[in-house]
Every structure is written in C-alpha cells, then in structure tokens.
Amino acid sequence: MNSNTFKVYQFLLLNGLFCIALLLLRVYVTGSLFYGFLVWNLFLATLPFLISSSLSKTVWLKKQTFPLLLILGIWLLFLPNAPYLITDLMHLRHSLSSLPWLDPFMLFAFAWNGLVLGLLSMHQVYLILTEKWNRTIAKRILFITVFLCGFGIYLGRFQRWNSWELFSDPIILLKDCVDSISNPMYRTRTLGITLSFGFFLWILFLTVENFLPTKKASRN
C-alpha cells in the first residue's frame, strides 16, 4: 500500500468515525435510535469502494475480460448505495430532535461520506477501464454507469429494493423496473430522479477525474 492510498483510507476512516460520533451524540441527547439505520447505510456505501479497491490491486483479474466484467457487474449493483445516502435527507421532515441544527448537519455528513466513497470508487474503476482499454471507452462506460446508478437510487428510495434482491427476487424486480419506466403514474418521477442523479454524478465524476492523477493508457 503506497502512501497516497494509505492517506485516502485514513481520510475515509476519519470521516466515518466523525459521522458515527455525531450519531452517538444525537442518541445521547435525545435518547432515540431513530437514525440508527444510517450506520447500515454507510456500511453499504462502503462496499463498492472496497470492491473497486480490491479489484485495482488484483493484477491478474484486470487482465481477464470476463471475470473483470463480472466483478464490475457486482460493483455496479452496490454502487447506488453510496450516493443513496443523499436521499436520507428526506428524513428531516420526521425529525423531533431537541437540537434542530444537529440532524441536518449529521445527515449531511453521512451523505457527504457516501458521495465521496462513490466518487472515489468510480475513479478507481475509471483507472481500471482506462488501463484495460482506453480513456474514451472508460468514460463511455462511466457515463452509462451514472444513469444506471440514478435508476438504482430510485428503486432503493421509492420502490424499497435492496441490491441483493436482484438474486432473491429477480423476476419481481424486473417487473417493477419495467413498470417504473412504462407506467405513466411513475414515469415522470423515475426519469426525474434517474436523470437528476445521473447528471449530478457525472459532473462530480468529471470534477474528480480532472483533479486526481490518471495514468495514460497505451491507446487514446
């Protein structure tokens, strides 16, 4: 592990511990475990980063196209869990905290962590794809990815699907996906959330890609 990677892990650990400290402070002040689900959501947000980090260190796997795409498919399945934390801000309407400043600050901190984890993970995958093919193909794949991620956020927040339910209830999930897109009752909300999060993540990804170092691919 090089020094830059170690610093990233330190930064993420510090951010995660800060979020948990805020949550514990709220529990102490209010005596309520209402926001306890944020710890689980933060754990789920960490999974795509752990997958992409492990993949970036596995040289032989990056050279094998089918296994690489299989792992990236699993990564994509869990990726929406990272920016999904932004939608937890919706819970502010149910907040009854005696410290009105604490809840929005805490929810923002968790959302920030999820967003950073997702963007760092996307950048890692971008580097992997650039090394495997080239920057043009990598960006095209990531462009599609952000909108699939936006659709995944919609399914998680409004249809209450979890990532692993693709394996436990694939037929019902597929029907729900088709209904969300084809049914006029849900279509506007589905497209609105998918496109909004998709373009938002794409802009943030381009920002990160311009500030973080990228190895030049052999083909451009």
Describe the structure.
This protein has 220 residues and is mostly helical. The chain has one domain. The protein contains nine helices and no strands. The protein has helices at 3-30, 37-57, 59-62, 65-78, 102-132, 135-157, 165-168, 170-182, 184-211. Helix 1 runs antiparallel to helix 5 (102-132), helix 6 (135-157) crosses helix 9 (184-211) and helix 8 (170-182) packs across helix 9 (184-211). The longest helix has 31 residues, at 102-132. Keywords: Membrane, Transmembrane, Transmembrane helix. This is DUF1361 domain-containing protein.
Helices and strands in order, then pairings?
Layout: H1 3-30, H2 37-57, H3 59-62, H4 65-78, H5 102-132, H6 135-157, H7 165-168, H8 170-182, H9 184-211
Helix pairs in contact: 1-5, 2-4, 2-5, 5-6, 5-9, 6-9, 8-9
Pfam family, one: DUF1361
InterPro entries: DUF1361
Keywords: Membrane, Transmembrane, Transmembrane helix
> What class do helices, strands and sheet pairing give?
mainly alpha
- Beta-strand proportion: under 5%
The counted number of beta strands is 0
**Percentage of residues in helical conformation:** over 70%
Q: Tell me the Rg in angstroms.
A: 18 Å
How many individual helices?
9
Biggest beta-sheet profile: none
Domains (count) = 1
Low-confidence stretches: none
Shape: globular
